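Note to self: keep these together.
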Amino acid sequence: MKTFFLFGYHQAMSCIFPVVIFGALALSQVVDIPFMSRYDFILLVCVLAQVLMLVCKLETFDEFKVICLFHVIGLGLELYKVHMGSWAYPEEAYSKFLGVPLYSGFMYASVASYICQAWRRLNLRIVHWPKAVFAVLLCVLIYGNFFTHHYLWDARWLLKLMLVLVFLRTVVFFTVNKKTLKMPMVLAFFLIGFFIWIAENIVTFYGAWTYPNQEEVWSIVHIGKISSWFLLCVISVIIVAQLKRVKDGSVVGKKLGNQQIKKSS
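Structure:
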């Protein structure tokens, strides 16, 4: 039970940035913010939170650079999806660009923040990571499909099959309460995507954005969106893992992986 609660504690501490966003959304929903629009207020809170996390050393500068990359990736996707009518941000704000409030990029950045924080707090090590060419190619194909499926065949199920094949042998090790535990990488992808879907239901309830079926009255986000978040978190983990591999070899190889497996056994 101690290991279980410590795991929960580290997960909660890794979610500081998402919780800040949830808090800003909830507060601005029930309280009228003076002198500024709601979206501008949320953006200001996100920027201040990012600065405080750096100043208080809750986040390293390398992690901050990764988060900035995700902000750009997420904002690009938002601009396209809003243009295509997939969802909308109906409220007015000075910080909106082509119909997208700039705080939306922080929601994607918060996913990267969680991954970076969890990686450090739980001392993640990944065994049998696929070759960079396969991981990066899969990442590019998944991201591209978010754009092309509006015009071409939606390849998400083919991409999922490719994902299972590429990451079939990949296992993630993490440490809690001095105990080394392990999980198949594909299962980790799915679990992160599932909990992001739960978070999405919360943020749409508080009006972070609105799907077409939520314009009149809020309703639960379609369960099929788990699939989208599952694929998005694959992109997130691949980018973080590849950057860490280039920088310091955090993605371990077979030799260390075999030692961990024996120790775990």
